[in-house]
TrEMBL record:
It comes from the Bacteria. The keyword Acetylation does not apply. Residues 4-115 form the Response regulatory domain. SUPFAM superfamilies: CheY-like (SSF52172). This is Response regulator. PANTHER family: RESPONSE REGULATORY DOMAIN-CONTAINING PROTEIN, STRESS RESPONSE REGULATOR PROTEIN 1. InterPro entries: Bact_response_regulator, CheY-like_superfamily, Sig_transdc_resp-reg_receiver. The modification 4-aspartylphosphate is found at residue 55. Keywords: Phosphoprotein. The keyword Phosphoprotein applies. The lineage of its organism: Bacteria, Pseudomonadati, Bacteroidota, Flavobacteriia, Flavobacteriales.
Amino acid sequence: MKYTTIVIDDSSIQRLATTFLVKNHVALEHIGSYGNPYEGLRAVVDKKADILFLDVLMDDIDAFELLDSVNLNCAIIMNSTWPRFAVKAFDYGINDFITKPIQKPRFEKSVVKVINQLKGEQSSIRSNKDYLCIDSLSNFSLT
C-alpha cells in the first residue's frame, strides 16, 4: 500500500527537497506540493491525503494558525529550521517533527514511524468490529 502525501512549504527550495524525498520513497505516493498553504489545505481535504509534510513558518500564516482553522484527517509531519517549535507541534498532536535541512535518514525514520501509526489506527478500527460494547449492564441478564 502506498500512502498519499502532500507537501506544504512556502520555500521553493525546501518544497523541492521534501518533494524529492517523498517521490523517491517506496511507500509514498506524491499527490501534490504547494507553496500556498491555503491551496495545500484544500488539496489535503479534496484528495484525502494520508500524510502531510507541513512547514511551520510561512509568509502569511504559521502552521499552528493553519491547524487552528481546520480539522485535518491525516498524519502530519511538521518541519522547521527551528527545533524550538517541536514541543508546540507535539502539543498540537502532530505525528512527528523534522528539523531542516531534512536529512534522508531522519526522513526515513519519520516516515516509518508515521506509517506504523497509520497501520495501528487501521488495525484498531478493524478489530473494533469484532467486539460488542454494552453501554449499561442494568438490564442485562444471562438467564
